[in-house]
Amino acid sequence: PLDGGRITAIISPKVWWAGVPILVGLFFWITSPMLLLIAILALPHLWSTIRKDSAMAMPDRYYDVPASTRWNYAFYYLGLAGYLGIMSYQTHRMLPG
User: Fold this and answer.
1) CB within 8 Å of 73: residues ≥ 6 apart
2) What is the pLDDT of residue 97?
3) Is residue 36 a contact partner of residue 27, using CB atoms and an 8 Å limit?
4) How far apart are CA 58 and CA 35, in angstroms?
5) By the 8 A CB rule, do 39 and 21 touch?
6) Is the separation of the CB atoms in 10 and 59 below 8 Å?
7) Phi and psi angles of residue 55, each rounded to the nearest 5 degrees, phi first
8) How many CB atoms lie within 10 A of CB 51?
9) 15-44, pLDDT tens digit by residue?
10) CA-to-CA distance for 42 and 1, rounded, in angstroms?
11) Residue 54: CB partners within 8 Å, gap ≥ 6?
């Protein structure tokens, strides 16, 4: 559903199976409707990891990247996700109420 989904697909298409439960868990912790919406939008991508002939599945050559590129993308993506998570938490803590 978002640009990060294509990056995680380069790391491994099965990363979606870890991300969606995390989004649902965060929804119950923070109760942001946006998290639930993103999790729902990710369901077709989960389905595409099961069915290779799905319309959302990427061509095989899309995943044909060197392992070093996969590790670099994973490092940068997880670093960005961690940074955004910490900043969101800090901002949420600063809000009144």
Assistant:
1) 7, 10, 11
2) 67
3) yes
4) 24
5) no
6) no
7) -65, -25
8) 10
9) 778 888 888 888 888 888 888 888 888 888
10) 6
11) 44, 47, 48
Phi, psi at 56, each rounded to 5°:
-85, -10
Q: What is the pLDDT of residue 56?
A: 56
pLDDT at 1 over 50: no
Q: Is residue 33 within 8 Å of residue 73, measured between CB atoms? A: no
| Tokens at 10, concatenated | 């380069």
| Segment 51-54 long-range contacts (CB within 8 Å, at least 24 positions apart) | none
Q: What is the token pair recorded at 91?
A: 């901002």
In terms of pTM, does the model score above 0.70?
no
Amino acid identity, position 1: P
d(CA 63, CA 97): 46
